[in-house]
Amino acid sequence: LKTLGLFDRDGKYNIAGELFADLNGNELFGVDIVRFGKSNNQILDRETLNNISILSQYDKAIEIFERYYQYEEIEGYSRVKRELISIEAFREALANAIVHRIWDLNAHIQISMYENRVEINSPGGLPKGISIEDYLDGQLSVLRNPIIANLFYRLRIIEKFGTGIRRINSAY
């Protein structure tokens, strides 16, 4: 845990260590997922993921996504898995939201699920010095949370090379 940078100088968990802990008191730093119907006035389902590891938040958000945006279709003798929305794009956007958010803002990552799209809002906005054009071009990566990014990289969730936005765009 020390090698991974999850302890402070006193040998206690730092903020990143707490965020990776299975149980934590970070009820304000979770993921809030809402599935809407025909409009924002129609809430079909809602789940808030907090007080658990950010890795569990990541896994559970993907499970919820798959529940609503993947289905099986019979083709001849086989069942074929289909996607209404690209899992690759969702996975990448979710990982980016967790790795690049500002963790000292008392707000959840918000995932709004609609019939034809998913919107992910991560607290904090773009880092200073990065324009919307730089962000959308996908040529630049500024690590806001290097400890979290390092663990996500070691777990093969991200690649730490700044290609996530390009990957999302190519999935569409």
**Oligomeric status of the shown chains?**
single chain
Task: Give the amount of beta strand, in percent.
Answer: 15-25%
The largest β sheet comes out as: 4 strands, mixed
What gross morphology would you assign? globular
The share of residues in helices is: 25-40%
- Poorly predicted ranges (pLDDT <50, ≥5 residues)? none
Main β-sheet, spatial strand arrangement: 2-1-5-6
Mean pLDDT: 88
Give, in order, the helices and strands. HEEHEEHEEHHH
**Discrete helix count:** 6
Structural class: alpha+beta
Number of strands: 6
Radius of gyration: 17 Å
Distance between the termini: 38 Å
What does this structure look like?
It is a single chain. This protein has helices at residues 15-20, 54-69, 87-100, 132-137, 146-154, 164-171, and strands spanning 31-36, 43-49, 70-75, 78-83, 109-113, 118-121. The relative contact order is 0.15. The longest helix is centred in the middle third of the chain and has 16 residues, at 54-69. The chain is globular. It has 172 residues and is of the alpha+beta class. It has a 4-stranded mixed beta sheet, with helices on one face. It has a two-stranded antiparallel sheet with strand order 3-4. Strand 5 (109-113) and strand 6 (118-121) form a beta hairpin. The model has no long low-confidence stretch (mean pLDDT 88).
Note the topology:
Blueprint: H1 15-20, E1 31-36, E2 43-49, H2 54-69, E3 70-75, E4 78-83, H3 87-100, E5 109-113, E6 118-121, H4 132-137, H5 146-154, H6 164-171
Parallel strand pairs: 1-5
Antiparallel strand pairs: 1-2, 3-4, 5-6
Helix pairs in contact: 2-3, 3-5, 3-6
